[in-house]
Every structure is written in structure tokens, then in C-alpha cells.
Amino acid sequence: MAYDMDGVRAAYPALADGHAYLDGAAGTQVPQTVIDAIADAYRLGIGNVGGAFAASRRSDGIVAECRRAVADLVGGEPEGVVLGPSMTTLTYRLASALSAQWGPGDEIVVSRLDHDANVRPWVQAAQRAGATVRWAEVDAATGELPVEQYDDLLGARTRFVAVTAASNIIGTRPDVAAIAARAHAVGALTYVDGVHATPHGPIDLRGLGADFYATSAYKWSGPHIGTVVADPVALEGLRPDKLTPAPDEVPGRFETGTLPFADLAGVTAAVEHLAGLDASASGSRRSRLLASMAAVEAYEDSLFDVLLGGLDGMAHVTTYGKAARRTATAYFTVVGHTPRAVAAHLADRRVNVWNGTSYAWELAGVLGLRESGGAVRAGLVHYNNRSDVDRLLEGVAELAGGSTRR
């Protein structure tokens, strides 16, 4: 398709402020349709679910439609969509429930490529259960997570494998399907962190082999809502702590407290927005999502070639991560400048980037960047354009030969 960048950008009110929003890996802006959906939910009136009155029935419908939308986005089933305030919160909740089945002698496998939200909940749960934690290592030079190491890491006592679908700082997209196949061969479950991967291309959790797939709507133009999508059968076998009168069915038993119904309406609107990015796509919402997100991936990859090529062409810049498959995410340092100073210099030029470890705690250590304040992260999403990239490159080029600290 011919990617309609002008049309895409026009959908986002925040982009009118003239800033280059290259901080999408930390959270995206939202289109007007999402803003309207949230406002309309409040305007029309909502109540808690399960009531006999119209406002309650509207909330029932919002929740059900949100589950269907998220299922369409990742290729799951609505009955397996767990909703909550964040991926981290839900992962801790699932870690507590899953680890109730672990004991001394059992093993779990985590990776140093992952955001800490897909590491620490499992490590802490394993420690409480007396299970052993084994680590999949990253090749520091390439940023790859070699699949072959899992042949040695997995065995008869492996109960669980956590792995990311894409690194949130260097963009590496490991071969999750191959890792999951190895895990399933020894009877282990897989928990895939899709927070960073989901905005950048089509997702098929069955193709990935994910027993649990986590994602966050605010990374793909929605409000701050987290979700974990699983096979409903897998959820049926788990008994999380909950209030006695709270729902006992799946997936409701995992959703503590009252859901933010208006925000859930925004999640559905965000999925609809993504499904419409390829105006030529037709068919079911799932079909339109696959086509649109494939177009997003192709567009971002092309623009990322310009961004990464420009950074790599500067002698005073070092970039990290050279994986064969990656998202459009650059992680770099600038000689003579702290990451914070670089981010501040770019902010003065209305270019928004992030700096630090971005919670990729283990990977920052592997790269030798943890103690020095991490690096600068510039991430592309589907509403970024060539002007955004050019402004970033111009700002970084200005830092050649200088030295600042902030």
C-alpha cells in the first residue's frame, strides 16, 4: 500500500505542537478517535458491571468489546483476555498464580534480553517457591538471543520460560517460536512479553507459541491499560488470590477491583485505528489488522534505515544492537556527553527521546551501560516521519567534538 503519512499524523492532535515524538517506545500519543471514545463513555453514562440498569449494561458491552478487540489484535480468544492497569501488575499477578505450582527442584528460564517486568516477577516468585532460575544470555556484540542455548537450559524439571518478543531498547526480535517449541517439548509454559513488539508489526500468538502474551495499549496509541492474552484453558487451571465475592470465572478472576471502563472503550478505539492504517484492507477486523500492521512494519523499517544509517555514519556516536530482526528502535551513546545531556540537548530542539536503562536492567548490564546511565533511545512508531528523523540526526550531529553534563 502507499502509506498515507499525512493522514496518519492528522489523526493525532498532540503532533500539532511541532515536537518530534521519538519517545514512542516509552508510550505513544493517541488519535482523536481514542480521545472521543473515552469522552463518549463518560458522556453517555457508565456504571459498574452486572447491574440491571442501562449505564451498567453499557459497561458490560465496553468490557466485552475490549476483549474482542485485543483478541483480534494478537490472534487470541476474547475469553482469554485479562485486563488490568499495566503489564507489570498483571505479570506479578500471574507469577503468583503460576508459581503456586512450582517447588524445590523445579526450574524456570528467563532471559537477559528482557525488560525487568518479564524478569523480576518470575525470579522473585521462583525464590519464594524454592525453584531454580536459569538464564538465557545475550550476545553483547550483536544483541542476539541465541536459540541454541535453550537446548542446554531446558530439561525435565523446566516448568516455565519467559522471553520477550522484542527488546525495548535495542529492538532485537528473537526467534520466539523456536524457543517456545523447545519449551513445549519438555512440558513447560511460555510467557511472552509483547509490549514492545506489538506496535511494530502483525502479531500471532499461536504462531509464536505463546501460552501467555502480554501487551500494553499505551504503546500502540491507546490509554494506559495492560493485558495478558492466554488460552482460556490455561487460565482455568490457575487460582489467583481474590476477594471471596469477586467473579470466579475466567478471565474475571484475575481482574482485581473495578475496571476503568472508559479507558477500555479507548482500547477498542485504538485497535480500530490500527486496523484502518491500510485503507485498502478489507474483511474482518483481524484481517485488516494483519494487513495494516504489515504496512506499518514495512514503513517503519524503511524509515529506520535512514535513522540508523545516519547515526552509524557519525564518528562520535556508538549504536547498540545489530540483530538481523529488530524493531525500529535505536539505542546509542555520544562521545563526551551523558545520555541525559544528549536528551536535554534534543529536547531544546523539540525532539523527544528517552535516556537511561528503560528498565532493561539485565541487558544494560550486558552492554556495559548500566553504571554509566544507560544510553539514549529513539524509537519510531507509525506516526513518525522523515522530518522527525532528520531533526534527530541534525541535533546529534551538533554534539560532535563537544562535552556537556547535565
Automatic annotation (TrEMBL):
Domain Aminotransferase class V, chain residue ranges per copy = 21-392
Q: Which Pfam families match?
A: Aminotran_5
Q: Which NCBIfam families match?
A: am_tr_V_VC1184
Q: What is this protein called?
A: Cysteine desulfurase family protein (TIGR01976 family)
- Species of the source: Actinopolymorpha pittospori
